[in-house]
């Protein structure tokens, strides 16, 4: 999970599918890891890219969530 947190810390938007491919695992496995990290207060899911764009490829390479916005996670510093 350390490598997953390092990728999140970079600030790039990742889709679940992209993360699964990057780590050579399944989307379900990534979802479980992300849910665990959210539940423990390590990360928070954020919707919208924060760049005021409309899904641009340069900033918003994540998949689109059901609300139509790119989704990404941020590290919650304790």
Automatic annotation (TrEMBL):
PROSITE patterns in UniProt? HTH_DEOR_2
InterPro entries, per the entry: DeoR_HTH (IPR001034), WH-like_DNA-bd_sf (IPR036388), WH_DNA-bd_sf (IPR036390)
Q: Which domain of life is it from?
A: Bacteria
Q: Does the keyword Methyltransferase apply?
A: no
Gene3D superfamilies hit by this protein: Winged helix-like DNA-binding domain superfamily/Winged helix DNA-binding domain
Q: Does the keyword Acyltransferase apply?
A: no
What sequence ranges are listed for the domain HTH deoR-type?
1-52
**What name does the UniProt record give this protein?**
DeoR family transcriptional regulator
Q: Which UniProt keywords apply?
A: Transcription, Transcription regulation
**Natural source organism:** Diplocloster modestus
């Amino acid at each position: 999970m350390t490598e997953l947190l390092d990728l999140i810390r970079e600030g790039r938007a990742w889709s679940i599918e992209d993360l699964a491919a990057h780590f050579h695992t399944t989307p379900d496995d990534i979802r479980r890891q992300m849910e665990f990290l959210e539940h423990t207060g390590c990360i928070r899911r954020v919707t919208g890219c924060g760049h005021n764009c409309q899904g641009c490829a340069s900033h918003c390479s994540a998949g689109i969530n059901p609300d139509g916005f790119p989704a990404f996670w941020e590290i919650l510093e304790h």
